[in-house]
Each structure stands twice: as structure tokens, then as C-alpha cells.
């Protein structure tokens, strides 16, 4: 934890109460727990921000919590997306030790083992009879004659009342490796896409605690940088009609061109998925916008496309202003360049925005695919 003072803002029955407390996280949790208990039937949202109320250019430690205490504690407990854990996942996956996570290398094997261990800690089960979280396969990359063995890492939270209906939450865990030309040779891929995998891990922990009516598949895909290899392989082995939605996370670590507390969604006009998210985020202070970068053809450049081509309303959430991002596919894409508050708040918004889909209250329309002319 950083030293100094943190500002915690409690929104209690539509009135603002500002309290200054020490940054000791254990004390903070005790105070928050006491106030939540005392609030009775009121709705209470807690947002912790950094020193002097700012998010911090290199990320702010703390927690983002949303709780509805009008529901009996025995029925629904407060949930926390802890930016300390967000930081841990991000910095681990984007560390030099992972050697740029290129598909088929020892570096990505280290990342795979980390993701597997986190799935196991959370308590995810394996996918459709697989013996482990690994979906292993071999392929030959374009412009190569050497076959590569690779693996998607897949875990499952079985649903309750609608377990035959599936929502997939995904991100790619591969990147470009360690063959840079300068002094720094490692493409750490912090934003692209350690930030997205961090979101997958955080959402798995969140839905494990809060519950899910539909089954959720959590997937860390390999080979995205080589042409959506892992997600395409995954798509070949599924019954797409069972998949009601795809939630893909890509580069969620920087403040969008729309400003703070916003994200954008690829393929917004191709289904009503985005409108459902917008409806669920009303009053939250967080906004979702359609992809503003139409010329970049981003809907078809991330793993959502592999399922969308099968008719699944699968879309990618992002926050990065890709048109001016100086770190995209550069060795400078390091964890220190990202904003922990942006990542944490975006994960929180995805959790809230997709909740009615996860619980079977909303079902997006099937996606409309019309490939761009080449």
C-alpha cells in the first residue's frame, strides 16, 4: 500500500458523506463493514480513490465496492473487486519473467500455469469433460513450416436455473515475445492483453461469490496475435447455439478518449448487447459507448470475432484510445504505464453491466455479420 491519506466517499441514501481514513487496508475494511451493517435498508456505494482524490497515473491501491444492503445479508453479501489483486495479476502476467508470452514459448507456459493456479484457487471446474483447464492443440503458423503446440486455458462456473445456456468471458494471454530490436527486447503486453486476462480472473472470482444463473465459461485464449488461432480452435468444438453472449476484454488499462469512467464496445450496432449494458449501467456513473474507431475494423481483430462468426453476440470491451496509443505492440507496453483505477472500475462496470445477461433476465439478439470487403 502507498502511504498517506485516502479519501473514501460514501453515497448513503442520496446524501454525500466524506470521511478521511488511514490507508491501512485492514482498518478500511473494518470501517466499511461497520458502515454497511449500520446502513440498514439504505443502498450504499463505496468508491476508494487515491491520494488527494486522484486515481493516480500509475494506479491507485484500494477497493471498489458496491453493495445493496436492502437485501438481507444472508441472501446477498457485499462484493469487492480489489485493486490490490488486480495489480498482482497484471504485474505478474506482464513481468519480464513471462518473456513476452509468445505462443509456443516457455514464457507463455509460465503464464498458462499462473492462470491455471488462479482458476483452481477460485474453484472453477473444467470445460465439457476436459481433464484439466488446458485445451491443447497444434497448428502451423502462417509463413512458417514449424508446428506449434499451444493451449487455451478454460474454466467453468456452472449455472443454476439456466445452466444449459452459456456466457463466455474471454481475453487472450499471448503476446509478441522477446525479440525486440532495442536494449529492451521484451514485449510485456501489459495492456495487450494482460489487462484483459486480469479482468477475466477478477470476474471469475466475482461471479463465484455472487452467483450465476447461466453457466459462465472463462477463457484465456492463445494465439490471438497470430490470427485468432486459439479462439478459432475453441469455436470449432462447441455448439454455438448454447452460447447466448460473449464478453471479450481487450486493452482496458488506459483512459478512453471519452474521458474517465467510460469504455467502448466493438460491433455495437451488430446486436442489442451494448444497449443492454448501457441500460444496466444507468445511474452508476459509468458509461459505455460504441467503438469510435470504425476504420480500424476492431470487431474482427480480437477473439470475439471467432464466436461472432458463429452467430454468438460476442463483443469486445476496451478503454484504450487506439488511434493515439504510443505503446501498442511496442516494448514500452509495461504495467507501469497503466492506470489501476481504470482497470478496476472497468471490471466493476462489466460485472454490473452484464449481470442481467448472466442471470438470464436479458438475452442479446444474435449478432449480424457482414464481413468487410477485402
Which helices and strands appear, and what pairs or packs with what?
Blueprint: E1 5-12, E2 15-22, H1 25-38, E3 43-48, E4 63-68, E5 79-82, H2 83-93, H3 106-122, E6 134-139, E7 148-157, E8 162-172, H4 190-210, E9 214-221, H5 229-236, E10 243-249, E11 262-265, H6 273-281, E12 287-290, H7 304-308, E13 314-318, H8 340-358
Parallel strand pairs: 8-9, 8-10, 10-13, 11-12
Antiparallel strand pairs: 1-2, 1-3, 3-4, 4-5, 6-7, 7-9, 11-13
Helix pairs in contact: 2-4, 3-4, 4-8, 6-8
Q: Helices and strands: which structural class?
A: alpha/beta
- Percent in helix: 25-40%
Number of E-type strands: 13
Approximate strand percentage:
15-25%
Order of helices and strands: EEHEEEHHEEEHEHEEHEHEH
Question: How many structural units, i.e. domains?
Answer: 2
Task: Please report the first level of CATH classification, the CATH class of the largest domain.
Answer: Alpha Beta
Cα distance, first to last residue? Answer: 51 Å
Outline the biggest β-sheet: 8 strands, mixed
CATH superfamily label of the largest domain: Zn peptidases
Gyration radius (Cα, Å) is 20 Å
Contiguous uncertain segments of 5+ residues:
1-75
Q: What is the gist of this entry?
A:
28% of the residues lie in helices and 23% in strands. The protein contains 8 helices and 13 strands. The longest helix has 21 residues, at 190-210.
List keywords for this structure.
Aminopeptidase, globular, five-stranded antiparallel beta sheet, 28% helix, 2 domains, alpha/beta, disordered N terminus
Amino acid at each position: 500500500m502507498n502511504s498517506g491519506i485516502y479519501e473514501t466517499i460514501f453515497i448513503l441514501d442520496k446524501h454525500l458523506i466524506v470521511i478521511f481514513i488511514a490507508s491501512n487496508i485492514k482498518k478500511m475494511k473494518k470501517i466499511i463493514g461497520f458502515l454497511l451493517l449500520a446502513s440498514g435498508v439504505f443502498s450504499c456505494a463505496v468508491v476508494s480513490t487515491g491520494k488527494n482524490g486522484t486515481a493516480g497515473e500509475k494506479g491507485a491501491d484500494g477497493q471498489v465496492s458496491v453493495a445493496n444492503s436492502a437485501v438481507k445479508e444472508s441472501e446477498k453479501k457485499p462484493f469487492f473487486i480489489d485493486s490490490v489483486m488486480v495489480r498482482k495479476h497484471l504485474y505478474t502476467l506482464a513481468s519480464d519473467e513471462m518473456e513476452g508470452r509468445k505462443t509456443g514459448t516457455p514464457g507463455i507456459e509460465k503464464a498458462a500455469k499462473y492462470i491455471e493456479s488462479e482458476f483452481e484457487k477460485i474453484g472453477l471446474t473444467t470445460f465439457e469433460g476436459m481433464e484439466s483447464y488446458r485445451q491443447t492443440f497444434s497448428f502451423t503458423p502462417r509463413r512458417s513450416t514449424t508446428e506449434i503446440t499451444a493451449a487455451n486455458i478454460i474454466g467453468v462456473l456452472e449455472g443454476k436455473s439456466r445452466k444449459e445456456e452459456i456466457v463466455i468471458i474471454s481475453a487472450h494471454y499471448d503476446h509478441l515475445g522477446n525479440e525486440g530490436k532495442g536494449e529492451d527486447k521484451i514485449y510485456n503486453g501489459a495492456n495487450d492483453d494482460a489487462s484483459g486476462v486480469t479482468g477475466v480472473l477478477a470476474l471469475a472470482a466475482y461471479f463465484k461469490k455472487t452467483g450465476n444463473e447461466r453457466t459462465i465459461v472463462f477463457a484465456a485464449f492463445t494465439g490471438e496475435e497470430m490470427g485468432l488461432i486459439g479462439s478459432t480452435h475453441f469455436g470449432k468444438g462447441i455448439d454455438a447455439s448454447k452460447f447466448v453472449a460473449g464478453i471479450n476484454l481487450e486493452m482496458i488499462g488506459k483512459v478512453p478518449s471519452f474521458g474517465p469512467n467510460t469504455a467502448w464496445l466493438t460491433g455495437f450496432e451488430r446486436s442489442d448487447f451494448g444497449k443492454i449494458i448501457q441500460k444496466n449501467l444507468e445511474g452508476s456513473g459509468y458509461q459505455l459507448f460504441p467503438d469510435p474507431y470504425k476504420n480500424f475494423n476492431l470487431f474482427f481483430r480480437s477473439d470475439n470475432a471467432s464466436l461472432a462468426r458463429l452467430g454468438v453476440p460476442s463483443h469486445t470491451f476496451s478503454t484504450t484510445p487506439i488511434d493515439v496509443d504510443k505503446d501498442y505492440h511496442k516494448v514500452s507496453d509495461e504495467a507501469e504505464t497503466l492506470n489501476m483505477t481504470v482497470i478496476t472500475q472497468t471490471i466493476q462496470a462489466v460485472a454490473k453491466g452484464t449481470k442481467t445477461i448472466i442471470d438470464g433476465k436479458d438475452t442479446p439478439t444474435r449478432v449480424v455479420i457482414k464481413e468487410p470487403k477485402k
